[in-house]
Amino acid sequence: MRILLAEDDPNIAAHVTSRLEAAGYGVDRLALSPDIWERGESGNYTAIILDLGLPGMDGLSILKRWRQAGLETPVLVLTARGSWMERVDGFDAGADDYLPKPFRAEELLARLRALLRRAGPRITSVRAAGRFILDEATRRVTFDGEPLELSPLEYRMIALFVDRKGQVITPLELASHVQGRDDDAAKNAVEAMIGRLRKKTGSGAIETRRGFGYVLPDGPA
After folding, report:
1. Which structural domain range is residue 142 located in?
2. How far does Cα 181 stand from its chain's mean position?
3. pTM of the predicted model, to two decimals?
4. How buried is 212 (Cβ within 10 angstroms: 0-12 exposed, 13-18 middle, 19+ buried)?
5. Regarding beta strands 132-135 and 140-143, do their DSSP bridges make them parallel or antiparallel, or are they unpaired?
6. Which domain-ending residue is among 102, 122, 142?
7. pLDDT tops 70 at residue 22
8. What does the pLDDT look like over 90-103, one tens digit per residue?
């Protein structure tokens, strides 16, 4: 489950990102309005957390453009001002929920979970691929019917494999998605994580395509 975090304050963005990732979400963090507008409009996110006080094109204008373009992704709005008039403007522009600053990360996570529940059929909670079943709502994964004990990073890796079952994923893509960076240390960590997952599931659950990357087979091995 991937979240777009549109926040230009580096301290808030870093704190929220760490809490979201610890909860098992994948996070793309952006601060520049043109990038936020373009990436959000792709529709490739489960939800968007949008700060209204962005430099350049403000968050309200971005939100209006998304909704005018037909984007249905749930949007949780953040703002430092918090006046009732701004809340009305945000909801009229298409916000699904609203959280004034300062806020506690626990409340943001609770509001995000509630927002995703309300999104209903737009979000498929349970997905299966090969011998894995992944439940986004509970953040649980089973393998051959048995529950797996996974770290948040391992969960995000399995979620990416499930989303792209049958497709080869490069170590660079895995490092970028799971750890948010693509340096050599991140790629080495990905290889170590693959090794740990294979110990928990068996060597055939995630296959290696030498020179290309890794793949989750379409059916049972």
Report:
1. 126-215
2. 15
3. 0.59
4. exposed
5. antiparallel
6. 122
7. yes
8. 788 888 998 988 89
